[in-house]
Amino acid sequence: MKTGKVIGICAHSYEGGALCFLSACKEGAALLGPHLHPNIVLSAIPMGLSIPSWKNDDYDEISKHLKMGVEQIAQGGAEFFICPDNTAHIVLEKIVNELPIPGLHIADVVSQEITLNGWNKIGLLGTKWTMNGSIYTNKLNNQNLEIMSPDEAQRNQINKAIFEELCQGIFTKETVSLFQNSIEMLKQRGAKCVILGCTEIPLIINTENSALPVLDTTRLLAKAAVKLALSNSELPLKGWIKYF
Predict the structure, then answer these.
(1) In sequence order, what E strands does 84-200 have?
(2) What pLDDT does 138 receive?
(3) Binning pLDDT at 50, 70 and 90, where does residue 142 land?
(4) How far apart (Å, rounded) are the C-alpha atoms in residues 75 and 72?
(5) Mean pLDDT of all residues belonging to the chain
(6) What is the DSSP string of 201-218?
(7) pTM (predicted TM-score)
(8) How buried is 32 (Cβ within 10 angstroms: 0-12 exposed, 13-18 middle, 19+ buried)?
(9) pLDDT reported for residue 244
(10) I need a labelling partner for 235 at 20 to 30 A (CA). Which of 9, 80, 149, 215 fits?
């Protein structure tokens, strides 16, 4: 039985990488049958090697680790890559044309989901780099969609919780409440949905405990990768794959 193109997962944090891998396998089984899914190659360069560079905004140093991860999965036979880390896309956008295989951009996948649902005001949670950066604003502003994040104090709390807790598999009621309260405040400001823009947030926030419909970036990316792998679409040699 053919299982399609080989997916490469370039993990940055192990919690997000593991969730993406499991989600891709489950999506594959749902489409192909029990115990089946596209072939998957996984790399996991320790995120701890990049943390000092993130703190110093040294993107050149971070790019070395991400590039190594993509090279590893390419050597393992992957035909395209996904990175289950929203923040890492800040650096991947700068080096994507230098990588040996093309990639599927997480924000392209999420933007399509927003369009399909007709939402026009979108809340965004994630690391401070994601909430303050251009990963989603570039995509959504081009579609005349409004994007909003919590205030600076909440952004700092969320960023701290992501790195000190979620990325290390620590889940507390207090942190769940922090994210729930942030979503409720975004709803009060007019948001119609919320992007869980860090791949660990879906470990504690879901449709059942959120005041807004959630965009689970981890699982959306995994599902899109499986869909692409099982399609007849031709892949570019490099760069970002056009996802529609």
Answers:
(1) 121-125, 146-148, 193-196
(2) 82
(3) confident
(4) 5
(5) 94
(6) GGGT--TTT-SS-EEEHH
(7) 0.93
(8) middle
(9) 66
(10) 215
- Give me Rg for the CA atoms of the chain: 17
The arithmetic mean of pLDDT across residues 155-163, rounded, is: 94
- Looking up tokens 């000092």 gives 52
Coil, strand or helix: which one is 22?
helix
CA distances from 243 to 3, 96, 234 (A): 20, 16, 12
Render pLDDT for 66-102 as a digit per residue (tens, 0 to 9): 999 999 999 999 999 999 999 999 999 999 999 999 9
Ordered by where they begin, the domains of the chain are 7-106+219-229 (3.40.50.1860), 107-217 (3.40.50.1860)
Phi, psi dihedrals of residue 81, rounded to the nearest 5°? -120, 155
Inter-residue contact 65 to 29 (CB < 8 Å): no
Instruction: For residue 214, give Cα distances in angstroms to 8, 21, 106, 113.
Output: 25, 20, 15, 11
> Could you give the count of Cα atoms lying within 13 Å of 131 in the half-sphere of its Cβ?
23
